[in-house]
Backbone:
């Protein structure tokens, strides 16, 4: 893992977006599929997600072209952006009548195609390949496939981790980290503090993200005000700080914000 650990806060709802803007949170993940996907002025480190799950669940395929996605990236200039992938959660596979192997193949194929197009642009944003699978072995198989096809980027993310057993997620992260050469950086999509508390998880990652504070607001508050979002965001931020300190890392969350 590179020095430091960065946590990105997702903002799918309008109230979450306002909360992060009011608190001047510098590390933000915005999904291309979000209704309001325009970055706000206080963001210092922007990670753009392709929004694969919601777009495939609703449309069975990406409704916009790769050219449109790249044009969006050129307009907003994130530091990092996810290549378009095909998640492998059982709910989505059932919805679109597909398999893990099919979605892995489609992810690899789409990565290769998008990287070819990316090479012809003036984009300075860094592409992030997304590993897909469900079992630890399947993620490693997909890692080999991306490497063979020349689609394994310097920054790599692990997908389809949300709402899964924390021990399983930690095992997947460790297996992937052990397989990746040290020159590659590693991100985990959609992991909460119950995963980050597991031994060696933070040491294995360079970054992670979550919208858990937003989900907690929807579950616990009658009204989704930005003030309520701030409350849950600050609680989550404190828990992440405690995870980092507990990991033995010499770099605190405060330092990563500089």
Residues:
């Amino acid at each position: 893992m590179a020095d430091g650990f960065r946590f990105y806060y997702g903002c799918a709802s309008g109230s979450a977006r306002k909360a992060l803007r009011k608190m001047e949170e510098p590390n933000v993940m915005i999904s291309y599929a979000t209704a309001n996907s325009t970055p706000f002025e206080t963001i210092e480190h922007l990670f753009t997600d392709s929004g694969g799950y919601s777009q495939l669940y609703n449309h069975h395929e990406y409704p916009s072209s790769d050219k449109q996605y790249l044009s969006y990236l050129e307009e907003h200039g994130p530091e990092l952006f996810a290549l378009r992938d095909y998640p492998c959660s059982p709910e989505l596979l059932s919805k679109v009548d597909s398999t893990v192997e099919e979605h892995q193949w489609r992810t690899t194929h789409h990565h290769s195609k998008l990287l070819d197009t990316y090479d012809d642009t003036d984009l300075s944003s860094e592409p992030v390949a997304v590993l897909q699978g469900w079992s630890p072995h399947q993620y490693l198989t997909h890692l080999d496939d991306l490497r063979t096809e020349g689609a394994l980027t310097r920054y790599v993310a692990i997908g389809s981790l949300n709402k899964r057993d924390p021990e399983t997620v930690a095992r997947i992260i460790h297996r992937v980290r052990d397989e990746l050469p040290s020159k590659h950086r590693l991100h985990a999509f959609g992991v909460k503090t119950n995963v980050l508390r597991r031994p060696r998880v933070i040491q294995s990652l360079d970054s992670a993200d979550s919208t858990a504070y937003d989900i907690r607001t929807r579950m616990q508050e009658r009204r989704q005000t930005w003030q309520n979002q701030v409350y849950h965001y600050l609680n989550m931020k404190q828990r992440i700080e405690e995870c980092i300190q507990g990991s033995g890392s010499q770099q605190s969350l405060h330092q990563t914000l500089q």
User: Anything to note?
Assistant: The longest helix spans residues 226-246. The beta strands are 6-10, 27-31, 45-49, 80-82, 126-131, 155-158, 185-188, 207-210.
